[in-house]
Design a protein that fits this description.
With about 230 residues, this protein is of the alpha+beta class. It is built from four helices and nine strands; from the N terminus they run ββββαβαββαββα.
Length: about 230
């Protein structure tokens, strides 16, 4: 039994509160246990400057930040230059969200997902991807209603979850205490149909067997399907 009473393959309580802010085209407060992230979607009616003129795709990108009081010790704001960790996380969020859309169906549009962590207790990047998808979905629906999009570019939902090992135990949806003691740390991003968007797995100590990796992936996949069912309830 884990410190919070969950079974090893059990998710933390998950909540999505839509329309959390007033001005964003899509906004969602994501709660994975004590991890809380505000995700918002904004639209820019042009494609990125680096795109070729004859490239008719749109773009989806992301920015991530950890607010100073999100952790038990204050972290400084990244005003001028983001850290390597932040850069890695926002690239993961953007890459994951682009995997679930057909960019050719959103020409000359850039949708930016902002993920602002207001309270961190493990799994902030995976929570940001889940909330980011719902914020993106809301933004797309409003753009279709306004006529700025002619068709829905979203191919299928995606979701993400953390998973790891402490000793020989595989634990789904790690909180901070578990994550800091894990000997294997993994993040899994999948589509609703089970296609792999991202599967990051790292041994923090001794190497581990492929059979354990397969077990990690399968448990994470079941957890992701449960999260996508929660999307439907929202």
């Amino acid at each position: 039994m884990r410190s919070d009473g969950r079974k090893n393959d059990e998710l933390r309580p998950i909540h999505f509160t839509k329309n959390f802010t007033k001005h964003a085209l899509g906004s969602v407060l994501v709660e994975f246990g004590d991890t809380k992230v505000i995700t918002t979607a904004s639209v820019d009616y042009k494609k990125p400057k680096w795109m070729e003129q004859d490239d008719n795709r749109g773009w989806v990108t992301a920015e991530y930040s950890l607010l100073p009081s999100a952790t038990n010790t204050r972290c400084s704001r990244e005003r001028n230059k983001v850290s390597g960790r932040t850069h890695e996380i926002q690239r993961l969020i953007g890459r994951s969200l682009r995997a679930c859309v057909d960019l050719s169906k959103m020409p000359d549009l850039t949708i930016t997902i902002d993920a602002d962590v207001i309270q961190a207790d493990g799994g902030t990047r995976t929570a940001s991807i889940c909330g980011g998808f719902l914020a993106l979905k809301d933004a797309v629906e409003k753009l279709i209603a306004s006529g700025d999009l002619k068709e829905n570019p979203i191919v299928e939902p995606i979701a993400a979850i953390s998973i790891g090992m402490i000793g020989e135990d595989i634990l789904l949806d790690l909180n901070y205490e578990e994550d800091s003691h894990a000997r294997v740390d993994s993040n899994v991003v999948l589509t609703k149909s089970g296609k792999i968007v991202d599967f990051q797995t790292t041994s923090e100590g001794e190497p581990y067997e492929k059979a354990k990796m397969d077990e990690l992936f399968n448990i994470a996949s079941n957890g992701i399907q449960k999260i996508i069912k929660i999307y439907d309830e929202v």
